[in-house]
Write a structure and sequence with these properties.
It is built from 13 helices and 9 strands. The protein is mainly alpha-helical. A hairpin with a 3-residue loop joins β7 and β8 (371-373).
Length: 389
């Protein structure tokens, strides 16, 4: 960051969460962070921008994550096309090449875990599903103690990788973007981190629980820029929804009907959150405005809600808290650099005349399965002063 040019925080955070997620799942991280600084994406206003774009796609450190992203894109497009999507792929499977790359990384871990579990069961005379998992084992080690079906194991591992990498990366990226737009929040949050954790110490779980304002900032980020802006659920049985118009009859929803709900719209609705719903204000999670959420928890659904709430919610909070804390220990401020954004990511001028969040945003959202910033999220970060350390 000492070059004078901005760095793509979105790329950096995605690399970090990919390494953390694969370490948690498989016990070994992909080499997403093993890349030289000069091989990172360059900003649009850098003289080597075009060359860096070409080099980036060929770097081995990006092979797995880029293939994973392309496969997600195909999956999302198939979902939106509905039942007719196979017609568009009669002659070629668009995901085949990238899934081969993804599977070449995942399958060996699955096969090794299954083999180790079978050998362990033979030696100890244990039954599938009855073995206690050791503290130092990976999540995959836990899964193989329940089933030896390699297809199920691979699919569940990829499902968890998607949930554990993209949503956390998106939220953390958006959090730093919002800090860059609200320096007073950034200063207050950093002061809390330095007070409770210090300038260099790695935060413990107990430290993170004390960072009350950090939790408020994370929640407010999840509210105004949810990583999954809309989602779909399917009814098992028939249900009745209340009509938006109290004068009208309830709405019948038949069994197996798909129900789409928009977290982004719900969480920035003035009807649900008050007249300042479009404003980024972490204090709403601390002051009396919190009563809106307490009275109706279903107005805040970044992790879904009810009996189907995300099982990884606390893992996500802790991982995001750790990443944000470490960055705030190292850097004192984050400045959004619009000149670094490539043309496809630049915000149209007429957005300034829009309503709600649209009039405020300085990045262009892109949605595949999760939301991200088109063209990256570029910041110039100021290193912490020596006096902090």
């Amino acid at each position: 960051m000492g070059t004078g040019y901005a760095i793509d925080f979105q790329d950096l955070i995605q690399r970090t969460t990919m390494a953390l997620a694969t370490e948690f799942l498989f016990g070994t991280a992909v080499n997403s962070l093993q890349i030289a600084v000069e091989d990172l994406p360059q900003p649009y206003n850098h003289p080597d921008y075009q060359a860096s774009v070409e080099a980036f796609s060929k770097n081995p450190a990006n092979e797995f994550s880029e293939a994973f992203l392309r496969a997600q894109t195909v999956a999302a497009e198939r979902d939106r096309a509905g039942w007719i999507w196979p017609l568009a792929e009669i002659f070629v499977d668009r995901a085949k090449k990238d899934m081969k790359t993804v599977n070449s990384f995942v399958v060996p871990f699955v096969e090794k875990a299954v083999k180790n579990n079978e050998e362990r069961n033979k030696v100890n005379g244990e039954v599938q599903g009855k073995r206690e998992v050791e503290d130092d084992e990976s999540f995959l080690d836990h899964l193989v103690s329940q089933t030896s079906d390699k297809t199920i194991l691979k699919d569940q591992a990829l499902n968890l990788l998607l949930a554990g990498r993209d949503t956390i990366a998106a939220t953390t990226t958006f959090l730093f973007y919002l800090l860059s737009q609200h320096p007073e929040v950034s200063s207050r949050l950093r002061a809390e981190v330095l007070e409770h954790v210090g300038p260099t110490k790695r935060p413990t779980y107990e430290d993170i629980k004390e960072l009350r304002y950090l939790r408020a900032v994370i929640n407010e980020t999840l509210r105004v820029l949810p990583p999954v802006p809309w989602d779909v659920r399917q009814c098992i049985n028939g249900a009745v929804f209340p009509s938006p118009d109290p004068k009208e009859k309830p709405i019948y929803v038949p069994p197996e009907a798909a129900v789409v709900y928009g977290a982004l719209m719900m969480q920035t609705s003035e009807d649900l959150w008050g007249p300042d719903a479009a404003e980024f204000d972490p204090d709403r999670w601390i002051d009396d405005r919190k009563q809106r959420f307490i009275a109706n928890p279903f107005i805040f659904v970044p992790f879904n809600a009810g009996p189907r709430i995300c099982l990884g919610q606390q893992l996500a909070y802790n991982e995001m808290s750790l990443i944000v804390t470490r960055f705030l220990q190292a850097f004192s401020s984050f400045n959004f650099d619009e000149a670094a954004i490539p043309p496809e990511g630049q915000v149209p001028k007429n957005w300034a005349n829009g309503k709600g969040r649209k009039a405020k945003e300085r990045f262009r959202p892109k949605v595949i399965l999760t939301m991200s910033s088109e063209g990256g999220m570029w910041f110039k970060a100021k290193a912490a002063e020596d006096s902090d350390n």
